[in-house]
Design goal:
The protein is of the alpha/beta class and about 280 residues long. It has two domains: about 10-105 and about 255-284, 3-Layer(aba) Sandwich (Rossmann fold), CATH 3.40.50; about 110-250, NAD(P)-binding Rossmann-like Domain (Rossmann fold, 3-Layer(aba) Sandwich), CATH 3.40.50. About 35% of the residues lie in helices and about 20% in strands. Helix 1 (about 20-35) packs antiparallel against helix 9, helix 4 (about 105-115) crosses helix 5 (about 135-145) and helix 4 (about 105-115) crosses helix 8 (about 250-265). About 45% of the residues are buried. The protein binds NADPH dihydro-nicotinamide-adenine-dinucleotide phosphate (NDP).
Amino acid sequence: MTTNYRHEIVGVFGDPVDENPAILMFEAAFKAKGLRWRYQNFHVRAEDLGAAMAGIRAMRFRGINLTLPHKIAGLRYLDRITPEAALIGAVNTIVRDGDALIGANTDGKGFLMALKLNANLDPTGKRVVVLGAGGAARAIAVELALAGVRRVTIANRTAQRGEALAQLINDKTSAQAEFAWWRGDYTLPEDTDIVVNATGIGLFPHMDDKPGVNMDSIKPGMLVCDVVPHPPRTRFLIEATAKGAKTLDGLGMLVYQGAIAFTIWTGQDAPVDVMRQALAEVFA
Ligand code: NDP
């Protein structure tokens, strides 16, 4: 047997990046699968992104995640990009194929998997409200539209961003999209099936914050989702439960977007339960 002390390297480029907990779910996953792979947090400043991307090739990393502030800026260093990531306009997962860097966006797909597997809900034909129009909202709204929802309402504080996302969905998918200017408490359309908080409102340590939604417009039978993974039970979800709605937390999305990246990199099924457990312990 030949000696090989080398590990396959993946990780995340971000700034800040020290507190990014994805390392815990990936390292747990590699261990569970018996893979000699390592995941590292790399502190990469915006002005150094080009050099860091060249480093993926130079050091033969297998892939990398991009997080704030690199998800959009990273596009210009890629050789290929998936059609969904091109529509979303951002990448969060890169895989190296020989010398080619290929970009994908697993955020919205992670949300869809959580919707199907954790909430047991098929989005086909549903009417959805997405609160926010930033990176997470774009990924979720585009993937829901591609998955066949009937209508997407984008509620956003900044009109220009919200209108641009609604326009994108109308132009590039078969879903019908509309923009709602989000000021004060937003009243959900009565026929809403799914509402998603795709803003960071309620994220630790601001756990008392809640998106401005008229909670009386939340009805039993609606599914109320949050992208905030920490804490999993946000104030928004707790109050929605009290209104009789079903809920879906942001932990599932975080686990599944990571599980998809795991499979892109390793070609193997991800040990989803191990990954969820690793994160749940951090967020407990
Ligand atoms: P962005 O900065 O790109 O977008 C933030 C969005 O939230 C914008 O639309 C912004 O509105 C809106 N917003 C922020 N504060 C307020 C407020 N006080 N009132 C109304 N709207 C507000 O961030 P991201 O989309 O990248 O991230 C958002 C959240 O999603 C983060 O908390 C992140 O942790 C989470 N996330 C979770 C993932 C998961 O797997 N669970 C994956 C990716 C992200 P405006 O346009 O007006 O500025």
